[in-house]
Amino acid sequence: MLAYIIRRVAYLVPVLLVLSMVVFTFVEMLPGNIIDTLVGSEGVNDPEVRKVLEKEYGLDQPVYIRYAKWLIRAVQGDFGYSLVTRRPVAVELMSGIPATVYLAVVGISLSMLIAVPLGTIAAVRRNTAIDYTAQVTSLIGISIPEFWFAILCVLFFSLYLGWLPSSGFANPFVDPWASLKFLILPAAAIGFRQAAYTTRLTRSSMLDEMNKEYVDTARSVGLSERKVIFKYTLRNAMIPTITISGLQLANLLGGTVVLESIFAWPGIGRAIFEAILQRDYPLVQAGVLVLGVIVVIMNLLVDLTYRLLNPRVKFG
Amino acid sequence: MTEIQADKLAELQAVRAPALGGRLIRWRTALGNAWHELRKSRTASIGAVMLVLLFGACIATPWITTYDPIKQNYRERLQPPSEKHLLGTDRMGRDIYTRLLYGGRRLVAIALLAVTFGLSVGIPYGVLSGYFGGKVDTVAMRFIDGLLAFPGLLFYLLVVTLAREWKIEGIANDAVLVFALGFAFMPEVARLSRGTVLAEKQKEYVEASRAVGDGSLSIALRQILPNIISPLIVNATVRLGYVILIVAALSFLGLGTPPPTPDWGSDLAAARDYMETAPLIAAFPGLAICYTVLAFNLFGDGLRDILDPRLAER
Amino acid sequence: MAETVLELDDLTVRFHLRRGDLTAVDGASFSIERGQTFGLVGESGSGKSVTAKAIMRLIPAPPGEIPRGRVLFEGSNILDKSDAEMRALRGRRIAMVFQEPMSALNPVFTVCDQISDALRTNLGLSKKEARERVIELLSLVGIPSPQKRLDSYVHEFSGGMRQRVMLAMALSCNPNFLIADEPTTALDVTIQATILELITSMIERLGMSLLFITHNLGVVAHACDRVGVMYASHIVELGDKREIFARPQHPYTVGLLNSIPRLDGQAKYLTPIAGSVCNMMDPPSGCKFHPRCSHAMDVCRREIPRLKEIAPGHLAACHLHDRGTA
After folding, report:
1. Is the preceding omega at residue B260 within 30 degrees of 0, hence cis?
2. Element (H, E) at B63
3. Where does residue B35 rank: exposed (0-12), middle (13-18), buried (19+ CB within 10 A)?
4. What residues contact B175, with CB distance under 8 A and at least 6 apart?
5. Do C121 and A224 touch (CB under 8 A)?
6. 3-state DSSP call for residue C63?
7. What is the pLDDT of residue B17?
8. What is the value of pTM for the model shown?
9. Subunits with at least 3 CB pairs below 8 A relative to chain A?
10. pLDDT digits (tens, 9 = 90+) for B200-213
11. Is C54 an interface residue toward A (CB < 8 Å)?
12. What range(s) does the ABC transmembrane type-1 domain occupy (chain A) (predicted)?
C-alpha cells in the first residue's frame, strides 16, 4: 500500500506543475505589471525608477526564471506581499482558510445527515409518496442557484422573522453560541444543494445495489430485512456516495466564493474575491494555487479512502 | 498518418460514400424512433416540453416583448406586476419580463456555445488519447488532471479578471466566457471519451473487425464513436444547466456581464438592495434560473433513463 | 418411509412489467420426499429459477405476484406465512445456493463475516463460536487452510472455491432442504464435476432433500432421483429419472435428449429442436410448445395440456396421450 501511495504522490507532481503554470501565466497575461500598480496612476514614469524597481522585482529576467523563482518561493510558503495590506500573503491566506473549511465541513456534514437516510428510504420505498417527494425535492434542489437560495433564506429568516443575523462571523472557539447563529444560514445554503445532490446519489447507488444478487442471498439465509438493507446493501452503496461526497467537499472549497460574499464570511473565497476587486494579484495568485493544491491532495485522500473501503480494488 | 494509412482511408471513404445516403435514412428513422422513445420516460417528456418552451421563448423574444430591456424609465421604477408590466419593473424602471427574456436568450446561447465548444475539443482529445495509449495518453491525462484541479469558480474568476483587465467588452466578453466555460467542460468530456475508447478497444468486435481487415482508424470511427454518444449527451445536457448557474453566479458577483446588459445573475445582485421594499424583483430572475436549470436536469435525467437499458424496468 | 418435504400445488407466478404482464410459472405442481434429489430441468426463461425463488419467497412483491397455488413445506403453506415466520424458515430449514457466487456473495464483507451473520442470526452463536463453526464449515466443503482463508474476501477465491463458500453458507444452519439454482453453470467444466460431487455427498451425509435446478441433462442424470422438465412456465414432464431418460413422453423432453451430443457414435447428426423459445410476453395459444413440435395437432393449438399420469409416477402434459383416455 505504501508503494501505491508513493506512486500516487509522484503522479501529483506534474499535476501540480500544470496548476502552478496556469496560475503563474494568469498574472503574466495581465496587461501592465506590478510596477504600474506600485507606481500608481500619477505615473512616476521616470525610466530610471522603473529600471530600479524592475530589478528589485526581478522583472528584468526571462519568464522561465521568474517562474522557477516564484515556484521555489511558493513551495516554501513565501507568496510575496499583499499589494493592499502590505502583509505577507501567507498570513492573509492562513486567516481565511480555517473559516472556509469550517463552513464547508459543517455544510457537507449537515447535508449527509439528511441526504443519506432520505436517499436510502427513497430507494427502499421505491415509487411511494416519500420516494416521489424526495426525488422532486432533490431535483429542484440541484436546480436552485445557491446564491438565490441564500438570499431567500436571508429574506425570510433574517429580514422577515428576525431570528438569525443576515451576515457575519464569530469564532466558534471564542463564542460558540454566536458562532452558531452566524453559521446556520450559510451552512444551510451550502447544505441544501449538497443534500439534494447526495440524496439523488444515495438513492441511485442503493437502487443499483438492491438489485444485486447478494441481497437475495442475505435474505435467503434468514437475515432480517433491516439487517439486509442497513448492514449489507448500504455499506456497498456508501462507497460511491462517500467517494463522490469527498470530491464534492474538495470542490466546495473553491465554490464558496459567492456565499462567503453574501454572508460576509471571512473565508478564503471572499479573500480572493476582494483581492480581485482590489487588483491585489499576488494574493489572488497565491490563493488559487493553495486551494488548487488542497484540492489535489484531497482527491488523493478520496482515492485512498475508496480503495480502503472497496476491497475489490487493489492498490495496483 | 503514414502514406499507407492515408491510402487505405481514401479507399474506405470511396467505398463509404454511397453508404452515407443509407446512413442519412437511418438517421431519420432514428430521430423518428427517438420521439417515440422519449415519450417512454415521464421526466424526459416534461423536460422536453419545458425546453421547447424555453427555446421557443428565446427565439421569439423580439416578437413577444414590447419594451426595450436597457432603456431606463425612472418614472416607473419598482412597480409591482401589472397589466402594463407583466412582472413589474426594476430599480431603473425597466420591464422585468423583457429583461428576463433577453437575458435568457443570451444565457442559453452562451451555454449552448460553451458546451458545444467543450465537446468539440474534448471528444477528439479523449478519443485520440485513449486510442494511442502509452506515453501520449499519460501526458494528456496529467494535463487534464491539472485543469481539473481548479475547484469551483476559481478558474472562471481568473479568466474573467483577465478579461476585465484587458478591457474586453460586449460580445468579446461573452466570447471569453464561452471559451472559459467550454474549456472547463473539456476535461470531463475527454475523460468520458477516453474511457469509452479504452473499454471498447478491449472488446471482441474490435478484434473481429481487425481480423476482417478493417483499418484501425475506421474501427475507431465506426465502432467506438456511437458508444460515446449516450453518456455524452446526458452529460452535455446536465452541463448546460450547470453552465447557466456558473454564469449567473459570476454575474451575481459583478464579474460576468457589465451592466446594463440584461443578465439574470446581475439582476439578482441588484435586487438585493431592494429586498425589503420590493422583494419580488429578486424572485423572478431566480425563478427563471430555476426553471431553466430544472428543464435541463429533467431532460438529462430522462435521457439517462432511456439510454441506459439496464434501467428499463425500474 | 416417504415423507413429503416439499409440495408445489398449482403454483403460479406473474410479473407486472411496464411492457405488459408475464406469467413466469404457470400451474407448477410436483413434490419432493425426504432424502430425495429432484432435478428441475429447462432452458433459460423456462421459469425454473423463478420457481426456486418463489419457494424461498424471494420474489419481489411489487412487480411479482403469486395469484394462485400453494407451496407446502413440511405440511404448511409458506405462502400464508408472515414475514417473520418465513425468515425463521430461511437458513434454518430451507437454504439456497445461487448460480454466480461472485455476484451472490457480498464483495465488501469477508467470508467469515457473511457466514457468521447467518450463524449468529439463526443459531444465536457468539462471535467466537461462530468463527469456529465457520472454520468447521469451510473444511467441510473442502476449502484448504480454512483458518487462513477465513478473513479473505470473495474475490480472493477462485471460481470453484467461491461456490464452496456459497455452499458452506447455505449449509451453515443445518437446513433439511437445499435448493441449488444452477450451481455449476458458471464454473469450468473440470470444476463442475467436483462441486457436483461435493453437493451430492453433503446431501447424503446430512440427510437433506435437494431441489436441483439446471439446464444440463448430464448433471441430472448423475445427481437426481426424480426429474421435472419445464418449458415456458409449465411443467411438461415429471417422473423418475430412469423412466424419463428411457421412455420420454413429451416431445420437448425427447428433443432435449436427442440434442445431446453423444460420444458413443450412435447418432450421426445433432438434432436440435426446431424454432426457438417462445416470447413469454406474447406466448402461443394452447400448448406453448406446439410451434416447435413435429407432432402438433389441432387440439394443441387450442388447449393447454394438463399433466396426466402415463405410467405409475410418470406424468406428462401432452395431448398425444389424450387419445387413450375417453
Report:
1. yes
2. helix B42-64
3. exposed
4. none
5. yes
6. coil
7. 42
8. 0.80
9. B, C
10. 777 766 666 666 66
11. no
12. 97-302
Does B249 contact A at CB distance below 8 Å? yes
**Cβ contact (<8 Å) for C118 and A310?**
no
Q: How far apart are CA C316 and CA C319, in angstroms?
A: 9
Residue of C100, C155, C169 with shortest CB distance to A221 = C169
Helices (H), A211-280: 213-220, 225-227, 234-255, 257-262, 268-277
pLDDT single digits (tens) C78-99: 888 888 888 888 888 899 999 8
| CB contact at 8 A, C222 and C212 | no
d(CA B99, CA C99): 63
Q: Which of residues 5-34 of A touch B (CB under 8 A)?
A: 11, 14-19, 22-23, 26, 29-32
**By CB neighbour count within 10 A (0-12 exposed, 13-18 middle, 19+ buried), where does B149 fall?**
buried
> In this predicted model, what pLDDT tens digit does every residue of B178-189 receive, in sequence order?
999 999 999 989
Mean pLDDT of B299-310: 76
Is pLDDT larger for residue A139 or for residue B25?
A139
Q: How confident is the model at residue B14 (pLDDT cuts 50, 70, 90)?
A: very low
Does the beta carbon of B312 lie under 8 angstroms from any beta carbon of chain C? yes
C117 Cβ under 8 Å from any chain A Cβ: yes
Which residue(s) pair with C178 in the sheet?
Answer: C95, C210
Nearest CA in chain C to A232: C106
Q: Which A positions 189-208 lie with beta carbon below 8 A of chain B?
A: 207
> Does the CB of B42 have a partner CB in chain A at under 8 Å?
no
- Identify the closest residue of chain B to C62 by CA–CA distance: B314
**Residue A302 included in any domain:** no
pLDDT tens digit sequence for C118-138: 888 888 888 888 899 999 899
> Pick from B279, B259, B260: which is nearest to B271 by CA?
B279
Residue position matching grid coordinates 436571508: A154
Mutation target to probe the A interface, by most A beta carbons within 10 A, among B54, B156, B158 is B158
The span from the CA of B212 to the CA of B16, in Å, is 16
Separation CA B37–CA B33 (nearest Å):
6
**B294 and chain A in contact, CB less than 8 A:** yes
Q: Does B158 touch chain A (CB under 8 A)?
A: yes
| Paired residues of C229 in beta bridges | C41, C237
Determine, yes or no, domain membership for A2.
Answer: no
- Is residue A209 included in any domain, yes or no? yes
Mean pLDDT over the full length of chain C: 86
Q: Which residue has the cell 429542484?
A: A140
DSSP-derived 3-state class of residue C158: coil
Q: Is residue A184 part of a domain?
A: yes
CB contact under 8 A, A18 and B147: yes
Given this model, what pLDDT does residue C325 score? Answer: 47
Closest residue in A to B149 (Cα) is A292
- CATH number of the domain within which A224 lies: 1.10.3720.10
For residue B215, the cross-strand partners are: none
Domain limits at A168? 103-279
Distance from the A179 Cα atom to the nearest Cα atom in chain B, whole angstroms: 24
